[in-house]
């Protein structure tokens, strides 16, 4: 009995729940949609029970603090304090409170916004150092990038409307056509992976195939 | 009879047909007739990359992406690990140092097992230290990126191979490795990061090409049947577009209506 | 007039610390990054516990919906992945999540990513725009055919090469837009520093 | 060291200082250039404008901290438009940063004083969790059953705007602003494909390429193309603000960027063909 519990039944759950989602999309059957809505509600509740990411973070940084890793343990200790502060205050004050908004607006937003924004500097040094016209392919890519940047810079369309037209034409032709061809693959490839997973051929997520 | 929504009939039939074609190809490959898979130029470049590392006496960096197994990027992560397995085999054979930074807890054991298998196949298992060759660098995006960039600056690798799921850090890696003149092979199916690899890398695997490259390496029938099935639908779509466009140019919209049922 | 609000000063410190990383990795950045990772994990715990109480526990107690115990138990099974002996129990929660997630993500792809895209391309070839899109779609589609040997010989081979160059032009356009994205993002921070923090501009 | 070597050897910190200066200068001396409004922004405006009075609009705020500088201005401009059209607006988000962003939107738009709107009667804020596609399904088809309370813990069923609320049919349009490809594509799969609602998209301009096939095929009514789209929408709603300012400043920064590409390639080709080949 225990062998069936280990693999076949979980795979059956994946298949049944997966097919419920798919059939509900194609067929208007009230009972099917009611079951689907219930499963979605369960999925929201289940999601709110799983804190693996935070646990892994605490285990990793907790170990660093215990071992007093040189040059790292105090950063890890601070990280754990931050997790505790934001978790406890979020529950005490409420995540919708103005105090909590103050904590988010003055710590999280500047950090999150600036970390992604600082990629602008990598793009600048990238443009200068590695964006070279090495062959026809990179040449076309750079020419297209160049014309789009000009079209996106109000200075140029303000002097000659044609720059905006060139930029829009590149999007309305090359980008629509080529990305539509790419999207075929994303769609069909996604279906292939989905079917493989639902029928149990792709079980990477269950660890290596025994 | 269950009411299928109008405008969804063709999609449902196509979906069922897709599963059937996949099953048929699966049966064929079980009887040894695995479909043909094209050999991509980027695949040969990997041999060139390791050869360059031997000449320069410098390491090869192979980054299998930052995806995991439980998110929707599992296929890209598996493709990245396949390329890692292949590159590890080449490094073991030619005695080149390999460095493959890890970013996800679930991927680490599988990646290390793959590389162990590759080194064992070349009879070089004793030369492998998995902790050093496949270190867990960090789970957080920018800490991970800064460690990888630090490695590029210190070790100045001869080649940098990046295949798998990547996010905003792709530009940082491609730019930093390009700055030290490494031969770069980049491949991802995450569309938003594709422009950076295409702009900076010497060889690029565009989107699905990473699946074709990994299928070519492993000849894994499950992945190849998927590729073959998507190709069938792509070619059917190709014919529909040509016939449909020509007919609609002369005013016959039958194909457009067919696609709307 | 320089700002007197302590919150603005904290935000300014973190903005500068997070930027410093680009020049050189340094303690201020390490502190900023560990703060960022910590508070992101912290608020997601508070957020999800609040949701668990509002969406799950309270309705179960007040309205007696005891079927909500099923997702809660499934959620708890996932923690068995930490035990070597009972790791297989975790598969139940993962199986439910994967089935629901993959089924939901998969179902609309045939229609929206394939059928509707085909339909948008079977339009009359009576404009330069329409013709160029048509050519790029059919050559681009051929470029991604990997398992048909016939496509590697003429005339298809030339079409696939055209397709690849079309894709590279499209990627260039996407790169150009990414420049605007990244520069625009940092522009916002620069306005914050000069206007909101230093008050050098109205 | 030949001229070409010098051209290729500018250290990074010099490049970064040039970028910082190019960003700072126009803040003091705005160029005040006219904005050429793009097609997709106009279509997005028309789609919202065509929404009948009194129907419901879902507004998904999902740009977090990374997208706030460029997309929050679009959220403000679009909120002005939704309230002007007297629609019942359901704001929703799935994390504390986006909830803080929504409070920030209300600070700038002040729906109560400027438009005479009342929380609970004309607009509401929901906080959700779970995978995105599931959140979209819940909001569009099973809201009152699954989500008992709003972001502040008040009961939804008790709110005036949800009296006699029929799931899905009452929602006339979905607007979304996000930095995540899974969300922008996910809305096509749920709002357009499964529930057949009108959808107005909004994302970072780096995402436009992979989303534009949906727009050209008519699946998405219109979209906000990053800060450029946000500036367009501010102009269309006659509420010039942060986005117009950012786009104006971007002129100089992007010119500097173009110069970097040119100098880099001049150095590269000079070295390659003029002497001292690589």
Count of alpha/pi helices of chain C = 7
Q: Can you tell me the CATH class of the largest domain in chain B?
A: Alpha Beta
Strand content of chain B: 5-15%
**Succession of helices and strands of chain C:** HHHHHHH
CATH fold call of the largest domain in chain B = Rossmann fold
Structural class designation of chain C: mainly alpha
Share in β-strands of chain C? under 5%
CATH architecture of the largest domain in chain B: 3-Layer(aba) Sandwich
Instruction: Determine the oligomeric state from the structure.
Output: heterotetramer
Number of strands of chain C: 0
Instruction: Count helical runs of chain B.
Output: 11
Helix content of chain C: over 70%
Low-confidence stretches of chain C: none
- Give the beta-strand count of chain B: 6
Shape of chain C: extended
- Weakly predicted, low-confidence segments of chain B: none
Strand order of the largest sheet of chain B: 3-2-4-5-6
Largest interface: A-C, 124 and 111 residues
Largest sheet properties of chain B: 5 strands, parallel
What would you report as the Rg of chain C, rounded to the nearest angstrom?
A: 27 Å
Task: Summarize this structure as a short list of keywords or feature phrases.
heterotetramer; B: 261 residues; alpha/beta; Rossmann fold; 2 domains; 5-stranded parallel sheet; 6 strands; D: 278 residues; 6-stranded parallel sheet; 12 helices; 13% strand; elongated
Give a short summary of the structure.
The complex is a heterotetramer of chains A (210), B (261), C (202) and D (278). Chain B has eleven helices and six strands.
């Amino acid at each position: 009995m225990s062998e069936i519990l280990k693999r076949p039944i979980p795979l059956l759950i994946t298949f049944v729940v997966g097919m419920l989602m798919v059939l509900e999309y194609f067929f208007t059957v009230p009972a099917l949609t009611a079951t689907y809505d219930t499963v979605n509600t369960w999925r929201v509740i289940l999601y709110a029970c799983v804190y693996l990411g935070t646990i892994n973070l605490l285990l990793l940084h907790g170990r660093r603090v215990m071992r007093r890793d040189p040059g790292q343990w105090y950063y890890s200790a601070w990280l754990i304090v931050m997790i505790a502060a934001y978790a406890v205050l979020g529950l005490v004050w409420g995540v919708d409170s103005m105090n909590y908004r103050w904590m988010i607006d003055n710590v999280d937003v500047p950090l999150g916004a600036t970390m992604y924004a600082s990629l602008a500097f990598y793009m600048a040094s990238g443009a200068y150092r590695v964006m070279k016209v090495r062959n026809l392919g990179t040449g076309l890519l750079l020419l297209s990038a160049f014309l789009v940047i000009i079209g996106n810079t109000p200075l140029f369309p303000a002097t000659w409307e044609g720059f905006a037209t060139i930029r829009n034409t590149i999007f309305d032709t090359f980008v629509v056509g080529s990305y539509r061809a790419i999207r075929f693959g994303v769609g069909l490839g996604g279906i292939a992976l989905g079917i493989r997973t639902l029928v149990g051929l792709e079980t990477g997520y269950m660890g290596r195939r025994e | 009879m269950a009411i299928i929504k109008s405008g969804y009939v063709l999609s449902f039939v196509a979906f069922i047909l897709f599963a059937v074609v996949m099953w048929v190809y699966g049966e064929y490959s079980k009887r040894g007739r695995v479909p043909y898979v094209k050999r991509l130029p980027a695949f040969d470049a990997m041999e060139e990359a390791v050869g360059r590392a031997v000449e320069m006496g410098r390491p090869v960096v192979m980054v299998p992406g930052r995806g995991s197994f439980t998110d929707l990027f599992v296929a890209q992560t598996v493709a990245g690990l396949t390329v890692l397995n292949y590159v590890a085999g080449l490094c073991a054979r030619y005695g080149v140092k390999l460095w493959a930074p890890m970013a996800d807890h679930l991927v680490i054991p599988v990646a290390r097992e793959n590389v162990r298998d590759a080194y064992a196949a070349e009879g070089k298992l004793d030369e492998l230290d998995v902790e050093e060759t496949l270190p867990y660098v960090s789970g957080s995006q920018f800490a991970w990126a800064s460690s990888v960039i630090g490695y590029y600056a210190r070790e100045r690798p001869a080649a940098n191979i990046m295949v798998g799921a990547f996010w905003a850090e792709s530009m940082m890696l491609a730019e930093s490795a390009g700055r030290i003149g490494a031969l770069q092979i980049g491949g991802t199916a995450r569309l938003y990061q594709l422009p950076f690899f295409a702009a900076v890398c010497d060889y690029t695997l565009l989107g699905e090409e990473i699946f074709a490259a990994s299928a070519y390496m492993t000849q894994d029938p499950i992945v190849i049947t998927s590729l073959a099935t998507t190709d069938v639908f792509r070619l059917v779509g190709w014919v529909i577009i040509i016939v449909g466009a020509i007919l609609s140019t002369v005013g016959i919209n039958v194909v457009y209506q067919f696609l709307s049922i | 007039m320089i700002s007197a609000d302590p919150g603005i000063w904290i935000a300014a410190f973190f903005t500068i610390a997070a930027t410093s990383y680009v020049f050189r990795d340094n303690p201020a950045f390490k502190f900023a990054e560990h703060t960022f990772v910590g508070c992101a994990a912290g608020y997601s715990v508070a957020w999800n516990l609040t949701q668990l109480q509002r969406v799950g526990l309270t309705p179960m107690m007040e309205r007696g919906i005891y079927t909500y115990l099923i997702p809660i138990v499934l959620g708890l099974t996932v923690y068995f992945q930490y035990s070597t002996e009972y790791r297989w129990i975790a598969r139940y929660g993962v199986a439910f999540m994967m089935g629901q997630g993959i089924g939901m993500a998969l179902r609309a792809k045939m229609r929206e990513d394939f059928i509707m895209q085909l339909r948008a391309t079977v339009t009359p070839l009576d404009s330069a725009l329409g013709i160029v899109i048509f050519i790029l779609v059919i050559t681009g589609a051929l470029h991604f055919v990997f398992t048909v040997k016939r496509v590697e010989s003429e005339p298809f081979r030339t079409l696939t090469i055209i397709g690849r160059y079309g894709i590279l032009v499209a990627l260039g356009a996407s790169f150009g837009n990414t420049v605007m994205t990244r520069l625009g993002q940092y522009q916002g921070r620069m306005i914050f520093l000069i206007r909101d923090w230093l008050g050098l501009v109205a | 060291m030949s001229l070409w070597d010098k051209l290729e050897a500018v250290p990074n910190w010099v490049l970064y200082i040039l970028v910082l200066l190019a960003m700072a200068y126009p803040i003091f001396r705005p160029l005040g250039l006219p904005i050429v409004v793009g097609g997709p922004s106009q279509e997005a405006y028309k789609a919202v404008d065509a929404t009948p009075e009194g129907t419901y609009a879902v507004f998904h705020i999902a740009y977090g901290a990374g997208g706030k500088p460029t997309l929050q201005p679009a959220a403000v401009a679009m909120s002005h438009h939704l309230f002007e059209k007297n629609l019942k607006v359901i704001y929703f988000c799935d994390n504390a940063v986006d909830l803080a962003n929504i409070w920030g939107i209300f600070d700038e738009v002040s729906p109560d004083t400027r438009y005479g709107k009342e929380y609970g009667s004309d607009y509401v804020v929901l906080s959700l969790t779970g995978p995105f596609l599931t959140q979209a399904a819940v909001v569009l088809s099973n809201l009152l059953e699954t989500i008992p309370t709003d972001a502040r813990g008040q009961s939804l069923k008790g709110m005036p705007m949800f009296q006699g609320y029929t799931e899905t049919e009452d929602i006339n349009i979905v607007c979304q602003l996000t930095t995540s490809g899974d969300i922008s594509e996910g809305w096509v799969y749920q709002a357009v494909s499964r529930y057949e609602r009108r959808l107005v998209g909004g994302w970072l301009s780096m995402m436009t390429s992979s989303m534009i096939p949906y727009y050209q095929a008519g699946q998405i009514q219109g979209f906000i193309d990053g800060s450029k789209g946000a500036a367009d929408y501010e102009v269309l709603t006659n509420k010039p603000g942060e986005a117009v300012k950012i786009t104006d400043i971007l002129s100089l920064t992007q010119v500097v960027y173009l110069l970097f590409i040119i100098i880099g390639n001049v150095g590269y080709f000079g070295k390659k063909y003029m002497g001292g080949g690589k």
